[in-house]
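Researcher: I'm preparing a figure for a lab meeting and need a structural model of a single chain. I don't have an experimental structure, so a prediction will have to do for now. The sequence is pasted below. Please return the structure as tokens so I can convert it later.
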Amino acid sequence: MNAFEDLVNEYGTAIFNYIFSLVKHKELAEDLYQEVLLSAYLAYPSIKEQSKYKSWLFTIAINKCRDYWRKENKSKAILEGRGLFLLCHCLERISIHA
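Model: Understood. Here is the structure written out token by token.
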């Protein structure tokens, strides 16, 4: 087993539980957890102080959740904006034909 696997074995459950506590959806938490592990794996060689691994992983986790929420809110805003546009367009057409 390598050092990264040891890190995942030590903190993986805590990281997943943290993500789940934030998003309250198991499948989403699993997806975000996988993104955290991938980001951590790619950046792992650049971390020099082992004492900071835990806080580093939790920081990656909260950032992945924030990225998800930003994207989700942006998508909702776009959909709501389109819905409002369509509603206005339909009301406009109704008033023209009335």
